[in-house]
Design goal:
Number of helices: 10
Distance between the termini: 31 Å
Largest sheet: 7 strands, mixed
Radius of gyration: 18 Å
Strand order of the largest sheet: 4-1-2-3-5-6-7
Mean pLDDT: 92
Number of domains: 1
CATH architecture: 4-Layer Sandwich
Helix content: 25-40%
Length: 269
């Protein structure tokens, strides 16, 4: 059997080889709840997740959390956004430190799959200097437009570090075996993507900001500000379909859900 045929057979059977998922909390933010769920009042404190995926062919991060500068100089790092978000971020919570707690050298991370380029998802890219970035082409292009940088909360300081960048279009199977597959979930930003993983106990979808909370999915309740409302609703409908087909959805910033997620060094199973 050829290599390609073996890969096809693995995908058909749903089996993967040695895939492990670790969830890490890289700080917290507080904001008005209405920013996260349009029309709602009050405030919310929510986690900043990042994930490590260990595959026989390489180590992958899905998002990298906040930049360490945010601990002591939020305005200097994220500018006017610091007027809308209160940063709760302590030493030992940045992505490099989280990896060290797993006895992993951040310089030996092979890939970073960024869901999108906002400060709480790409802020730690600088700390994994040898990784190749996997990003939707639409997102990479949006993050380099001066007008988008002004209006959409992008900061090139988070992603302009000279990494090798692979710009993908549509669904992308990182290792060719169906175990780590990014796919478009546009709407929150022009090129947002989520990640499908095949674990030993079933499929997990890391939704990131395509779906902030469980309520976002159950009620199609959008944030107060999105790049494209129609596309975001379509992305939520896609996540609903994946959920109906048995996938477990990991919401982007849901504090109640996050309390149920095993944290590294425990693996998510």
């Amino acid at each position: 059997m050829s290599r390609g045929a073996r890969g096809t057979a693995r995908r058909a059977s749903g089996k993967t080889t040695g895939l492990r998922l670790y969830a890490m909390t890289c700080g917290w933010l507080s904001s008005d709840l209405g920013m996260m769920l349009a029309g709602r009042e009050g405030t919310i404190r929510f986690p900043i997740p990042a994930y490590l995926i260990e595959h026989p062919k390489g180590r992958v991060l899905f998002d990298t959390g906040l930049h360490p500068q945010s601990m002591h100089d939020a305005h200097g790092r994220i500018g006017q956004l610091a007027d809308f978000f209160q940063v709760h971020f302590r030493p030992g919570e940045d992505i490099r430190s989280r990896l060290e707690q797993l006895d992993i050298d951040a310089e030996r991370i092979d890939y970073v799959i960024n869901s999108h380029l906002h400060f709480d998802h790409a802020g730690g890219n600088e700390l994994v200097p040898n990784a190749r970035i996997i990003i939707q082409r639409r997102e990479w292009e949006a993050g380099r437009l001066p007008e988008a940088i002004q209006s959409n909360g992008y900061n090139p300081d988070d992603y302009g570090h000279g990494h090798l960048v692979r710009q993908v279009e549509g669904e992308f199977d990182l290792f060719g075996d169906g175990s780590v597959v990014s796919f478009p979930t546009f709407g929150h930003t022009p090129g947002h993507q989520s990640l499908k993983l095949k674990l030993s106990r079933g499929e997990v979808v890391l939704a990131a900001d395509a779906c902030y909370f469980r309520e976002s999915l159950e009620k199609l309740h959008l944030p107060g500000l999105v790049a494209d409302r129609v596309q975001m609703v379509n992305s939520l409908l896609l996540l609903r379909k994946l959920q109906r087909n048995g996938a477990r959805i990991f919401y982007g910033h849901d504090p109640e859900f996050w309390r149920q997620v095993p944290q590294a060094p425990l693996a998510v199973v």
